[in-house]
Amino acid sequence: SDGCDGSSTAVGTMQQLYTKYRGRNLQVHTIAFGHSAGSGATLLQSMATAANGTYHAAASGLQLSQVFVQIAAECTAVDGLVKRFSEILSDMISIKVQVDYL
Fold first, then answer.
1. Whole-angstrom Cα distance, residue 94 to residue 89?
2. With a threshold of 0.70, does the pTM exceed it?
3. What is the DSSP string of 33-84?
4. Which of 38, 43, 41 is nearest to 11 (CA)?
5. Comparing C-alpha atoms, which of 61, 55, 45, 59 is closest to residue 10?
6. From 3, 16, 42, 86, which residue has the greatest number of CB atoms within 10 Å?
């Protein structure tokens, strides 16, 4: 949502998505962009809150890029993927060693 449509279903939809995917390390960020972003800021804040997420405001392109850098720096989803990949790789190496040398 751009936060400007006044949709009453946006917050409910965010709650449903959060409930459905929270076990998968879902991270929700809403961003109000531009000087006129204030008109939809309340809805975007409500959407973020409904999904235990974070609301950001960026009035300029520079601020928007800073928000994306901040989001990336705080992202824990990548950590989870790296951990899972290392577990799979470790299992595959163990199997290979067992097959080749035992």
1. 9
2. no
3. ESTTTHHHHHHHHHHHHHTT-EEEEESSHHHHHHHHHHHHHH--HHHHHHHH
4. 43
5. 45
6. 3
Q: Other C-beta atoms within 10 Å of 48: how many?
A: 19
* Tokens matching residue 88: 């799979």
For residue 5, what pLDDT is reported? 54
- Mean pLDDT, consecutive 10-residue stretches, the chain (102 aa), reads 60 90 84 76 90 90 88 74 80 81 70
SS3 29: strand
- pLDDT at position 8 is 65
Q: What is the pLDDT of residue 48?
A: 92
Going from the C-alpha of 39 to that of each of 19, 22, 50, 81, the distances in angstroms are 27, 29, 19, 37
